[in-house]
Automatic annotation (TrEMBL):
Stated name of the protein: Tryptophan--tRNA ligase, mitochondrial
Entry's localization field: Mitochondrion matrix
UniProt superkingdom: Eukaryota
Family: Belongs to the class-I aminoacyl-tRNA synthetase family.
Length: 331
């Protein structure tokens, strides 16, 4: 049977890229009664300078948002990474199976390390912690957006390296990445880059908690080009194509249908149509986010139950890992 694991950083609130690229996929897998574990990876969020009270708030906001998107804790194990210590323990062990050149070549590290003067070691080993997340639950499948592919490949490499050195124990996981363009939603302001929480320009990112007015404003200001009709050509027209893609994703229509129906519209009119579709799609989610946020006790309960389940699995894995490595004196 498949074992599915994925994670999301509680940095800011969830944005449309997270939702279309990953979170919506998780709820689909959940509907198929798959075995899923989802982690709010707060330890990943401290690899860049952060504000502690904000992080704490963001953890709850992320939990509320995941529930609002349809993550159902009676089917899916939802927990906060730092509540299960075994993540850092396996991270340490995997550090010794990883080489520095391998980490230094990863695109996400190269990008982020450019933005700080002194690069934190945590930022460097970030993908090793991610591999530990996946391996602790012996996950076979990892649903993510396409920006995570290299990190999943490192996790595959580390599972193989562990198995080769200490005997077969970990499955080599598979990435589940949507074939269509949902797996990569671009920034509205800089459509050469992915939509991202750390975007310098907040107008490039649509958050699930944004009000209809904010969504209209952001889409109105989305960078397009000097051609006024609507077509889909990600290479030549990344801005417009990103809007078409978002539109298709939130309405569940094909790209062709969306383009065909926009034939009479110019870019300004089309932006209004996309705004409406996004607002419609997000309206019930936004209402549910607020409902869950107003019930912190429920969130605490859900996350504690999730941690307990996750911890059991993680402890079982770590007992075996320690024994295989000859660590300690038991087992
Ligand atoms: P994070 O928090 O950046 O993003 C969470 C998920 O959203 C996807 N995503 C996108 N998909 C499409 N278009 C975009 N613009 C976009 N931006 C983000 C990401 O691919 C991801 O699936 N390192 C991970 C978190 C993590 C993890 C793990 C994931 C930690 N441990 C173990 C899987 C398994 C990250 O930073 O995701």
């Amino acid at each position: 049977p498949r074992k599915i694991f994925s994670g999301i950083q509680p940095t800011g609130s969830m944005h449309l890229g997270n939702y279309l690229g990953a979170v919506r996929k998780w709820t689909e897998l959940q509907k198929k009664r798959e075995n899923i574990t989802i982690s709010i990876v707060d330890m990943h969020s401290i690899t860049m300078p952060h504000n502690p009270p904000t992080l704490r708030d963001n953890i709850f906001t992320m939990a509320a948002t995941l529930l609002a998107c349809g993550i159902d804790p009676s089917h899916t194990t939802l927990f906060v990474q730092s509540s299960v210590m075994e993540h850092s323990e396996l991270n340490w062990i995997l550090n010794s199976l990883t080489t520095m050149p391998r980490l230094a070549q990863l695109p996400q590290f190269k990008e982020k390390s450019r933005t700080v003067r002194d690069v934190p070691l945590g930022l460097f080993v970030y993908p090793v912690l991610q591999a530990a997340d996946i391996m602790l639950y012996k996950a076979t499948h990892v649903p993510v957006g396409s920006d995570q592919l290299q990190h999943i490949q490192l996790a595959q490499h580390l599972a193989r390296a562990f198995n080769a050195r200490y005997g077969d124990m970990f499955p080599v996981c598979n990435a589940i990445i949507e074939e269509n363009d949902g797996s990569r939603i671009l920034s509205l302001r800089e459509p050469s880059k992915k939509m991202s929480k750390s975007d310098q320009n907040p107008k490039g990112t649509i958050n699930l908690s944004d009000s209809p007015e904010q969504i209209i404003e952001k889409i109105k200001k989305a960078l397009t080009d000097f051609t006024s009709d609507i077509s889909y050509n990600p290479g030549m027209r990344p801005g417009v194509s990103n809007l078409v893609n978002i539109h298709a994703q939130v309405t569940g229509q094909s790209i062709d249908t969306v383009v065909e129906e926009a034939k009479q519209l110019d870019t300004a009119q089309y932006k209004e149509r996309v705004s409406e579709a996004v607002i419609e799609h997000l309206r019930p989610i936004r209402e549910m986010i607020n409902k869950h946020l107003n019930n912190r006790n429920e969130l605490i309960y859900v996350l504690e139950m999730g941690s307990e389940k996750a911890r059991k699995m993680a402890q079982t894995t770590m007992a075996e890992v320690r024994q295989r490595l000859g660590l300690g004196i038991s087992g």
